[in-house]
Amino acid sequence: MTTNPLSVALFAAAQAMGFLLLAPLLRGLIKKMKAAFQLRQGPRFSQPYSDLRKLLRKEPVRSTTASWVFVAGPRVYFASAVVATTLVPAVLASAPLERAGGILLLVGLLALGRFALATAALDTGSPFGGMGASREMTVGALAEPALILALFTAGLSAGTLNLGELVRRTAERGTSIHPSDLLAAAALFIVLLAEAGRVPVDNPATHLELTMIHEAMVLEYSGADLALVEWASAVKELLFMTLLAGLFLPVGVATSVTPEALAISSLALLAKIFGLALLVVLVESTNAKLRFFRVPELMAVALGLGFLALAMRFF
Amino acid sequence: MSEESLLPLGLALHATGVALALVLRRQPAACRWVAFVASLCGSLTSFALGASVLASGRPVRGVLFANTAAGLSVGYTVDPLSAWFLVTLAVLAAPLALYSVGYLAHAIPPGRTAFVGMAWNVLLLSVEMVFAADGVLGFLVAWELMSLATAALVATDHESRPSRRSAYLFLVMSHLGTGCLVAGFFLLAQAGGSLAFADLLGGSASPGALRGLVFVLFLVGFGVKAGMVPLHIWLPEAHPAAPSNVSALMSGGLINAGLYGLVRVGAGGLGRPDPHWGMAVLLLGSVSAVLGVLYALGETDLKRLLAFSTIENGGIALMAFGAGMMGLAAGHPGTAALGVVAGLYHVLNHAAFKGLLFLGAGGVVASTGTRRIEELGGLVHRMPRTAGLFLLGSAAIAGLPLLNGFASEWLVFQALLRGFFSAERLTRIVLPLGGALLALTSALAAACFVKAFALTFLARPRSRAAAEARESPALLLVPQAFLALACVGLGLFPGLVVRVLGGVAAALPGIGPKPALAGGLAGVSVGVPAFDQLSPFVLVPAALVALGLAAAIGFMTARERRRAPTWGCGGELTAEAEYTATAFAKPLVTVFRDIYRPTREVSTVETAPYFASEVRYRSQIGAPFERLVYEPAARAVLAAAGRLRIIQAGSLHAYLAYVLVLGVMLLWWLGGLP
Amino acid sequence: MIHDFVILCAAGMLVSLYLMVGQKALVVAIRLYGVQSLLLGVVGVALGLAEQRTHLLVTAALTIVLKALVIPWFLLRVIDRVGIRREIEPYVNVPASLLLCLGLTVVGYRVSLGMAGASQGVAHQVVGVALSMVLIGLFLMVTRRKAITQIIALLTVENAVFLVAMGATSGMPLVVELGISFDVILAVLVLGVLVHRIVDRFESMDTSRLSNLRG
Amino acid sequence: MNLLLATLAAPLATAGLGALPGPRRPKEIVLVSGLAATLALAVATAGRFLAGETPVAFEGALRVDALSALVLVLTAFVGLLAGLYSVGYLERNERAGFVSAKRRTELLALVPAYLAAMLLVAVSNNLGILWIAVEATTLASVFLVAFHNRDTSLEAAWKFLVLGSVGLAFALLGTVLLFASGQGVLGEEMSALDWTHLLAHASALHPFTVKLAVVFLLIGYGTKAGLAPMHTWKPDAYREAPSPAGVLMAVGMMNCSVYAILRVHLVSKAALGPEFSERLLLGLGLASVLVATPFILIQWNLKRLLAYSSIEHVGIMAIGFGLGGEAATLGALLHMTYHTFAKPVAFFSAGTLAQLHRSSDFEEIGGGTLGRTPVASGLLLLATLMVTGSPPFGLFWSEMTILKAGFFGPHLAVVAVFLAALVVLFCGFFYQVGRLTLGPDTKPADRAVLPERLDLAMGTTLVAAVFAVVSAFYLPDSLVALIRAAVRVVEGS
Question: What ipTM score was computed for the predicted complex, to two decimals?
Fold first, then answer.
């Protein structure tokens, strides 16, 4: 695709903006659908936007114990999520900054965000922060291999680890549903649940100290700091869904920059993400949250799926 | 100044350091400066040599000394591979020398300054010689000297039992290794009769059982130094016991000696390797990596934690080499080159960030007097610069993007995956398994170093010493800053490093030119057609913009900020309530309990029924290898020796009986002869 | 016929050694040693006369004077001084010892057969006797506790060597012969001196007590 | 006067003068100057040989070829060191208030006498003379072993003498048999027992008898050399003998016994071909190395530790000769040379430690000597590096030469075991010396320690150390030439 720095920059900015603006909507959507499942009215779609606005207005209260690390944490987390969005192909069958790197770089960026936030969470000396950080890193440590294996399956079957290239090739090849793809997709989906802090791994709605992971980690944050964290998390969730959609059912992805192609692929993307959101909602409302020490088993399942996918594909 | 004279010059500088340290042993301050400035110059010289060889690609040869009586002469050859390791060593040793000047001042009793200075220079001299030796005997001399000097340095504080013990353990293990090397080299030379590496490791060894045996001997001999599980047991003991500057050198510089040897013999040195060799190295590497990081995670002693992570990183390099060897065995020089490049890159990176971390830890230990993470905390306020540098080191070693750890681990992944298309069934299972384990390793490493940094530097101090810590002096900080810079630079421009390393790999026997990876300022690209590429600095503007955005959001929206004590569920929150390192690692320790085999004991003191006034919790992580392999072996040997005592029971009659029996036996044998 | 005579004497020496093994009285042992040395001397004389070797005669005379007379006398004085007369129970009891000695004799002869081709006809039988004497003498040193007994046993070993020298060779060169004899005498003296010191120190000649240095 | 005879006469005269009663100083001066003269004469003799002539005396009964010259020089060198050290040793003892004048006379007389006997061994060209000389060394040294006149020293002396005599009896038998094997070939005059003569007629000797003779000679002289299983006297004798005598036994006597064994080996090779005696030497050598290993691991006494180390080293030499061939022989002779340079350092530093602590048992010395007697302990550590064959010191080179030759040769199994034993020995030796010198000061409270001074003994140790270190990097060309020539003698080329 294009290599002209300016257009690349614009493309990247546009995609990042897109993610930033749409991510809260996804959260709202999921909330709404969950409510619908529970035969409740539920908040408006736009509720997350209002929440963000509220948080951004509030004055951030910071612990007297905390240091600059506490402040840096959310910002690095946010930045890493935003940069990550420029590495995945969304509407177009190419990622804005795909020259920078592929699957591994993406995973690395997500790890960076986790690292930053977990470190910052330990800065206040609050036991909850520690607990959250510890648990977040535990889950992450187990989720990352699964994620990598799932992505490798896709990458190796296409013969490239570069996401843009990967989507292009799969798009050319058309969707061939190989069993290994299904397994990999399943693994990726489980990782998505973990990374997005969804039931059964975590419960974004709870504030009961002993069960929470992500929420415990950010317990000490408030105001704009908290807003950044929440926003970034939403972006991450959307990012994962886009990734899933792009890698495993590249239907209607725009391989050329023409209005109709773009229109089609945007619609297709929205549809896919809606489907995934529905899936998440289904899982969330039909499952109970797992005991924390059962989570590793779930991750092991994901890891197993990923490995199996790879083996099936290449053995 | 000609290239040939550079190595002798460097060694001579170290030797002068030894001599001057001996002369000035009565004035510690002067002694420090002289010894370590000499070592600094020596390192710079060897850096210059290495750099020029890497630039030109032409090996440099020369003779060092000859023992006329035995008719042995010791020469040296610095080919690109040696040059790479020399450069790696220098990158670490140069800042270390500076650091040592400041560090030794208040880390060791002045009476031992001269000793440390001398041993230090001997050590560097011998390691440089290990990398440069061009023949078996020179190599063995250097290898032995290296072990002895290291043991001496570990035993610097010989009054304390641990350092004595670990020095001895190190000596024993490295001697086992040396024994294997001697056997291996001479068996290898048996065919040709020449002891020159050019003949031995030129890839001319003919396949066969003997070659297999030789490789196993080398694997053990070099594996000991590389800290390869299960030969690693000395490492977590010896590295922490030594003064921190020595620990840094051992972790960042000495294990490289083992890795160097393995590359020499593995990457075509013994001819095209058997497929099993590469697989063995890969698997041993994976095991080392995972176990290393797991034990590091479970560790609450800062320096031991770093030592275990050294085992991990050695393992990662081994994985890369293993993948390379498998590629070589399968007849894919491209993959082989990729593996070697990845491994060598990681070696350099490890030298940079592990050095940085050990120096930081050294500063902490020097100013707080404790290595136990549980007794630290809150140092970010007292030692902000150290904290910042340590954080950067942690991020680098955790393999986070834009830093060097990520770049090399990225290459290791590539090596593992490239082997994929070209390999037969078994390999196709082993390689992705390796990939999964590598992913697990780096994820665990992230967890481990979140703990290492956050619980050491953040929150409230958990001990008086930590509360009264003060920032290290500039002499300690500048070297760390340099290494931090190296971490960033190596992370941002992998392409340049890879271009250099491509030359190194191409110079190896059996690999030859045409490695399947291209590198340049733009970055690295692997495989044709483009399999994957990495150019981190493309990401830099994006990252800056995003950070700016985040900062702006935070900055513009909030009018004023408020400071308040951390919420303590209504109560006053004290340092005791903080999450400890043990607690932080607990979930993962529980998840991997089958590996850790932790022993815990919980004792409750109850003042009244159901009212515990205090609860004590101890948790110990088992050391399976020591318990199951080494201790029984040692016991068996000593028991056997004890039983043999009977030979010399003091009875003259018995002694005469020996002679009689020998005589009778020999006569009987003679009578049987025709 | 002279050869038969030599072999007869040699056999006699062996017999005397067996007798030594068979009993415990120190005095008898010393006397037996004297007899043994005398037989050795006789061998020397016989061979010397038969083959007209004057220096063999000299050696023989030397042997008789020193070993049959002087050394026994010296040893007897030592045990008088020390006042110990009997060998206490040896490590191996007498019957067993005799059996083992038979075995050692077999070993000695078995080896000596290999020399059958050597220049002189008599050689290998003499050597057979001598080798068995050497082994038995050493065996005696192993099994007996008293210092004196050990010295005697050592001396019988020396006798065996001389037997070979006379029987299997036509006698060693005289200078060597003299030097060796001189050294043997010195050795005996030194041994005697040590025995004195030991007895003074330990009030006993039982060398099995000298076992404090172990490991 | 014949230079060779002078070389032998000098120490004898010194011994005679030393035996005379008289004030201390002059006798010490006589001793040292006498031994210095001996060394000078020995070197001169060797020089004569290098110049191309072969010094002889008593119509060839004494003869100096390369091997003799090498042993001669090395032994004389050790003799001088021992002489210097014994003077310092006596001074110290007087400081501590031991050692009567009588004892002093004994030492001053016996040391040179012992040396004289050893030199005679080194230059004897005649089996008979050789035997007599070896017997003489035994008689001279037995009183050195008994020097301290403790119960234990008597015990050690007794064992030393009895075992030695048995060995000598065997050696004598071997000599006689060797003579017998050449009936009608060698003739009957004195020269019949000369090496040169024997080698000349080797092919005509009766093979089986030679085999028999070689067996007895190897056992006999092996006893003096301390090859297992005849080594048992060594630890006792070394522990009891005063350090100067100890070093004479451990180096001088060992070299001479090895010399004797080599002569036998040569005859055997000439008469039977190499395999026979090489196999025996290999077996005995390996046995010695293996026997030394466990006792070094469990050792309780510093001097016994050194004894076992010397058993190990003689074993290494035997293995070297047993492996046969140019390279291995060179390695073995180098080993002898470097061992001669390294061992005195070990003995002297250990002796100093023992003397200052009035005991050589580890318990009674107590750990952490590096704090109490830094110089001696440092030298002991240095010596440990040397005798364990650590680079860059000489024994490393010789051991490598032997190992290389071994791995190139047919006896792979033997060499592998040998290598393993070397590794274990290194670890054991360092364990013992480490626990002695390093660590906190754990001296038994009730023992007083003499202060460490730079006295003559310490000076000697330092000089020896300098020699040892320098020798690793530089051997004078003449010495190298001597070694090479000796290799040619052994290899018969």
Answer: 0.92
